[in-house]
């Protein structure tokens, strides 16, 4: 029977409007949402293997964002209706508890099978994207070309990069879900902050060279707000993840200093060739 309000209802505003929601809970949810949406950018790593990439890649990015965002919204909303709140006997098996509540043991088993298949598919996609990006960086001498720019003569794939990404993935199995999620988000929020700051920097540079030809609000105000939010979320990540992230970021800065001879010359640029 169709009814509204309360646990198990088909329609309810509780998942969106909850007076018990706190700023810290919203921050945690925002970090989780960012983690859920990460990965769409991996589409761009296969640009050189795509037919008509200037047309296909932007369309693919938008489709993934819209379809994936719609799925996340429907699933999250439905989950909150079935099981309001975030209290579970075992948080690591929360999804199975909800699946069993929805459809019993049969649906829970089907859910587990689907989860295994999608995890393998997601892992293969991530490994492909990482290996392809490392190859592009090695080919253009951003990373050591002899290692990361190597292509297997028979399979015509960046074999070393595939192995490296696989080994790193296996090592990551030792991390718990909270730390690994926060560690990934550290990189994401750091990158998002830099992107927002670069938009402002480009606005200032173009204003000096060509005069006030761009609008101030979308090119300065919005990126500044985005950078502040990203830094706020970054500071509220897991402590271990922040430590690992700072170490990894420091290694990157030191390597960049080595490539640029102490930042005295521009770093190597990646070239994307369209045949």
Tell me what the structure shows.
This protein is mostly helical. The protein contains 8 helices and no strands. It has helices spanning 23-37, 53-82, 94-139, 145-148, 159-172, 177-210, 216-235, 239-259. Helix 1 (23-37) crosses helix 6 and helix 6 packs across helix 8 (239-259).
Rg over alpha carbons: 22 Å
| Helix proportion range | 55-70%
> Which sequence of SSEs, written as H and E, runs from N to C?
HHHHHHHH
Q: Give the terminus-to-terminus CA distance.
A: 58 Å
Count the DSSP helices: 8
Low confidence ranges: none
**What's the average pLDDT?**
82
Instruction: Determine the strand fraction and express it as a percent band.
Output: under 5%
Question: Care to count the β-strands?
Answer: 0
Sketch the major β-sheet: none
Identify the overall geometry: globular
Structural class: mainly alpha
Please describe the topology of this protein.
Blueprint: H1 23-37, H2 53-82, H3 94-139, H4 145-148, H5 159-172, H6 177-210, H7 216-235, H8 239-259
Please outline what is shown here:
With 275 residues, the protein is mostly helical. It has helices spanning 23-37, 53-82, 94-139, 145-148, 159-172, 177-210, 216-235, 239-259. The mean pLDDT is 82.
Note the main attributes of this structure.
275 residues; mainly alpha; 8 helices; 0% strand
């Amino acid at each position: 029977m169709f009814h509204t309000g309360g646990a198990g209802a088909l329609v309810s505003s509780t998942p969106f409007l909850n007076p018990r929601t706190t700023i810290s809970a919203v921050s945690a949810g925002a970090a989780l949402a960012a983690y859920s949406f990460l990965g769409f950018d991996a589409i761009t790593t296969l640009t050189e293997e795509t037919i008509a990439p200037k047309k296909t890649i932007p369309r693919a990015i938008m489709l993934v964002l819209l379809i994936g965002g719609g799925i996340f919204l429907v699933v999250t909303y439905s989950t909150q209706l079935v099981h309001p709140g975030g209290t579970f006997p075992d948080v690591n098996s929360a999804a199975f508890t909800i699946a069993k509540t929805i459809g019993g043991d049969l649906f829970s088993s089907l859910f587990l099978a689907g989860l295994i298949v999608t995890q393998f598919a997601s892992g293969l996609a991530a490994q492909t994207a990482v290996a392809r990006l490392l190859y592009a960086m090695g080919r253009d001498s951003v990373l050591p070309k002899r290692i990361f720019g190597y292509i297997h003569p028979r399979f015509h794939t960046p074999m070393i990069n595939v192995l490296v990404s696989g080994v790193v993935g296996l090592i990551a199995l030792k991390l718990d879900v909270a730390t690994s999620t926060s560690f990934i988000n550290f990189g994401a929020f750091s990158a998002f902050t830099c992107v927002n700051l670069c938009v402002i920097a480009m606005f200032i540079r173009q204003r000096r060279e060509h005069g006030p030809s761009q609008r101030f609000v979308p090119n300065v105000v919005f990126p500044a707000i985005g950078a502040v939010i990203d830094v706020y979320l970054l500071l509220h990540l897991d402590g271990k993840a922040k430590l690992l992230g700072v170490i990894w970021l420091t290694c990157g800065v030191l390597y960049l200093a080595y490539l640029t001879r102490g930042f005295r010359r521009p770093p190597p640029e990646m070239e994307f060739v369209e045949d």
